[in-house]
Amino acid sequence: xxxxxxxxxxxxxxxxxxxxxxxxxxxxxxxxxxxxxxxxxxxxxxxxxxxxxxxxxxxxxxxxxxxxxxxxxxxxxxxxxxxxxxxxxxxxxxxxxxxxxxxxxxxxxxxxxxxxxxxxxxxxxxxxxxxxxxxxxxxxxxxxxxxxxxxxxxxxxxxxxxxxxxxxxxxxxxxxxxxxxxxxxxxxxxxxxxxxxxxxxxxxxxxxxxxxxxxxxxxxxxxxxxxxxxxxxxxxxxxxxxxxxxxxxxxxxxxxxxxxxxxxxxxxxxxxxxxxxxxxxxxxxxxxxxxxxxxxxxxxxxxxxxxxxxxxxxxxxxxxxxxxxxxxxxxxxxxxxxx
Length: 339
Description:
- The protein has 339 residues and is of the alpha/beta class.
- It has helices spanning 45-53, 80-93, 106-117, 139-142, 162-169, 171-179, 182-189, 207-210, 232-245, 248-252, 257-265, 297-302, 317-320, 322-335; strands at 7-12, 17-23, 30-34, 57-61, 99-104, 122-128, 277-282, 306-311.
- It has a single domain (7-335), classed as Rossmann fold, CATH 3.40.50.
- The chain has an eight-stranded mixed beta sheet, sandwiched between helices.
- Helix 1 (45-53) packs across helix 14, helix 2 packs across helix 3 (106-117) and helix 5 (162-169) packs across helix 6 (171-179).
- The protein is globular, with a radius of gyration of 19 Å.
């Protein structure tokens, strides 16, 4: 077992404060773990412990709006260009050796934009659950890729992305519903994938017609956390982070499509990625699986050194498939001679 602990660090610049976890030898190759919604750096515990034991210098920040990092009030503060700038500043602070960037969910989007705009910062990128889009993860990108066999346009105009649209049309009430019982919201969100769900309409496709994620109750039902996903102490830390700051800042990430598309268009080479890319698909991820639909097509077209692998889990692969994700990343690193 690794003797490395997860050390808590804080890095300040005039524009932003980033809290991050660090583990492993400081002189090891750098691997950066970027979380998504609604997560904190601790979601990467299993991967950080494994890679630190293997000699990697592991760093996992709390992303903007989360945990111990800055949570500005302005909605446009959560545009991807600002978040990539946070990561670039942190990367410089860490001595700026080119890193392996690993992202999950919105963290995958940040990792993809960072290597598209500043490829010199990376030796390779791992995208977990959310594939790469050269026009970025935004409703105008996602909706044309919806599987219309499962989501007929007349019934589900935005397909599984209805919840994303709901943030843009009913932001205050969407946040209030999640904030009404933060622990229950988080416990209800973090559930394991169900193989049977892949052929069914996703609950997130029905948010608007239900009047919110939790329907007319406007709060999550009492839900015990799945401790097989989050260890008890880590789930408690997750809840404390959201009790302190709430869901508003994390959800504001969904409100910047126009700015994010404009930013993506400014990447060189049309957003094509020539460095090694690994995409890790969740086979039971009703939102983001690239199997049986077009969701992975833009990534396949614009990543010239792409490896795709799949794990038998839903959306929350860092905690649902802890050791399997470590193995998938490790195998790819060795196969691409990045280790």
